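We emphasize that the prediction below concerns an isolated chain of 319 residues; any contacts that depend on oligomerization or on bound cofactors are therefore not represented. The input was used exactly as deposited, without trimming of termini.
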Amino acid sequence: MANPKLMIWISARYDDAALKLLREGTNEYRVVLAAEAQDAAALLNEAEIIYGQPNSEVARQSSKLRWLHLDSAGYEKYDNEELGQALRAKGAVMTNSSGVYNEPCAQHVLAMMMGLARRLPSSLDLQRGDHSWPWLELRAESYLLGGQTALLLGFGAIAQRLAELLAPMGMNLIGVRRHPTGKESIRTVAEAEVEKYLPQADHVVSCLPATPGTRSFINAERLSLMKPGAIFYNIGRGSTVDQEALMSALNSNHLAAAYLDVTEPEPLPPDHPLWVTRNCLITPHTAGGHIGEKERLARHFLENLRRFNAGEKLLDQIV
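Result of the prediction step, given as a token string:
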């Protein structure tokens, strides 16, 4: 049952349809919409529930905060021990919106993986280029995903959904995470063992977040360990890849291709060499985007609000 005394401070910006959902779902609470309230900043310290992307220092110092919900899957600026300790000390929790973005991001990688297998980018280049018809070569280069190995770095919500989509292809799937639980849906190994498994993979998919420990996680040494002709995909964060080393691995033909939805910096400057690196395909951080995204974010928050009031386990809890 709703507690009308609870204050919910919302900084997330929504379209009309999503805003209507939020208003209807929170009409029994004291709600502050940061985009509309003149005293929004002052009221932030009074909120028991914060939804959006608040200043992490405010969240750390707030004495009334009971639940912080992020309107994103990424949470790097909140991933620090000081905030975690502060939240735990006051009995507060933090959740994100991974459940909104796992499906589109997983489908995005699947689309690129299948497109490369069937040589679709090459055919598009021909259509936009000289209109030639090398059908025998393209047929001979096309391959099936069945029997190939995909190594999924960062086996969180996105990689887990990707594994579900890839399973019917008959692929050999291996997850990598810092501390495997033994309850994962596929074989999952510890991050410390990644060098052992890189040479086995036909596809290496990075879903790694941006943390001090993941900066340049994919470096020259690890790229050199990848199987010749392997393909690298990144839908995590650009900072996790040494881009100079990646360009070298592509230009030397060690890797067959790379697909990047994230880069460093973003936006990627028009004259950046990644744009013209051999077999490097880039999308401008669109993997998580989809029609109805804002409404799904609102529904995700409202479902967690229901769970919060009912004392049930929250979706996508981080702390």
